[in-house]
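BUG: 3D viewer hangs when loading the predicted structure for this chain

Environment: internal workstation, default settings.
Expected: structure renders.
Actual: progress bar stalls at 90%.

Input used:
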Amino acid sequence: MSDLGHVLVLAGGLSHERDVSLRSGRRVAEALREIGVDVSQRDADADLLSTLVSEPPAVVFPLLHGTQGEDGAIQEVLTLAGIPYVGSPPGSCRQTFDKPVAKGLLEAAALKTPPGAVLSQATFRDLGAAALLDALVARLGLPLIVKPARGGSSLGTSVVTEAESLPSAMVECFAYGQAAMIEQKIDGTEIAVSVVDTGSGPKALPAVEIVAESGTYDYHARYTAGTTEYFVPARLGDAVAQTVADAAVKAHRALGLRDLSRTDMIVDHHGTPWLLDVNVAPGMTETSLLPQAVRAAGIGLGDLVRDLLVVALNRR
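Structure tokens produced before the viewer hung:
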């Protein structure tokens, strides 16, 4: 397929998720080459904008994760350069990457998210850490999930089962950002639902059920083969499967996303989905969730990426 022209896959960057991004980029580039697409891969560096202007590709697939990749920054650069790209517009990326903002928009769309609170590092330091932590436990109970208010791949995320562990969890979280989101840990089945739109509206792919060997789907469990068991499609009844699919599409629309997204959820024992995070640049590594859903849907990864590139190219 040469009708696309030259495709550029952007991967790498300087975020904590650089390694994951590079692996995602290689996987997508290889999948495109297998179906005959002219594709190259490059890092995001100080020469990127000048290169895009002097040697513009036909279309770009950005696979940068974390800061600059999912916070709207690289999307702004591509927009300035006039290069069509796969993915959501800058403003939608910004509001989705900021978890407290996204949480408010999801709740406004009548989607359930776990009860929680947000504390900045300055507040934690200046207003008395001990009293704040006591108030958190009194209000939200235990166990809790502590995670950076901005970021991905579960970096800086901890499960807190005892009040004595909360201070260290907050300190670890602040190593990855200036604010922490603390939420109740919902008991149930952990799933991820990817949404893709190849031109006929957003549609949910089969849900992926996640069973981490350690009990926590952290960075190690996400990217180390053999440490997590996946069930695709997830072991849900038909009615619940439709409910989670509808919730993912509704989240995609509520946040103003386009092309692709992934929503992480917990389905409780009543079959109710609780939305945890929405990702605008889902991973594409060997163990990533969206490629597993694509395979379960009977779609080739290269074919899906090509279709998304065509949509982006036509948008210009």
